[in-house]
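Supplementary notes for students who missed Thursday's class. We covered one full example, reproduced here. Read the sequence, then the structure, then the short commentary at the end.
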Amino acid sequence: MFNEEGDKSNYLKEYSKYSSLIFQMIAISATGIFGGIELDKWLDMKFPVFTIALTLLMTILAIIHLFRTLLKK
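Structure (token representation):
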């Protein structure tokens, strides 16, 4: 499948780059989810306002982080 060792090395570098980016996006989104849940519990909210708001906000930030990382040279 690979002609040279350099091709395999480049493939592994790209794989590790994108897989770490996915884990970063998951961590950013999870921070919003769990932070919102805890904030709603702490403030004794009947409707999960902070869970919804922080989940949306952190997901948008994760997408912005994705595009900035992919567009970086």
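Commentary. DSSP finds two helices and no strands in the chain. The longest helix spans residues 5-42. If anything here is unclear, bring it to office hours.
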